[in-house]
Amino acid sequence: MCDLHAHDHEPFGFLVDTPEIRALVAETERLRGEIADDAARVEALRPAFARLLAAEGWLPEECARPYDASRMGGGIGQYALYRAADGSLTLFSLVVPVGSATPVHDHLAWGLVGIYRGRQDETVYRRLDDGSDPTRARLEVSKRQQLGPGEFYTLLPPADDIHYVTTISTTPSVSIHLLANDTACVWRHKFEPASGVVTPFRSGYANAPCPPEA
Ligand SMILES: [Fe+2]
Description:
- The chain is built from 2 helices and 12 strands, in the order βααβββββββββββ.
- The longest helix is centred in the first third of the chain and has 17 residues, at 38-54.
- The protein has a 6-stranded antiparallel β-sheet with strand order 1-2-3-10-5-8, covered by helices on one side. A 3-stranded antiparallel β-sheet has the order 4-11-12, with no helix packed on it. Strands 7-6-9 form a 3-stranded antiparallel β-sheet, with no helix packed on it.
- The model has no long low-confidence stretch (mean pLDDT 95).
- By secondary structure, it is of the alpha+beta class.
- The structure holds fe (ii) ion (FE2).
- The site of fe (ii) ion (FE2) has 3 residues, from loops.
């Protein structure tokens, strides 16, 4: 389930099928039908997301280990747990080895992100330019925070959508992301704050292929 070759033919739906994951996805779909406003919906999702982070035994070990072939580098593993076939929702785990940091990146979707194991230091950037040049961005640090197991935040782009995380625990950190896109397969952006360079970025899942490019 957390191995790329297990999903060559069916990379959508519940790649990891447990009652805990089904409960969160069902609650997300229910609230999608009920609440039109993204900000109100992510708030309403907090209890269900907290329950998943507090639960034990639903995340296979293979989806909680570093991934040497990572396109993000540093052995960072991104494992799809649930993927809506229409690209409207993904639940994934992100494993950041000790001493590794993600690139500075964006997500381009509303959702919730929380720590399941280990500790992360997160640096969030604010964009100072108007975004009209797709190859450049002027960024400044707007927030730094440390997060441990059970702690999570909501994401409502464009606010606080650009960040990087690094693991500060002595074991790899595992964070859980519920986001309203097919996060690892959409073209996002990688940023170099010092030089202002912006690069198109598709992170890819360690355990599921992305659809062929149109
Ligand atoms: Fe991120």
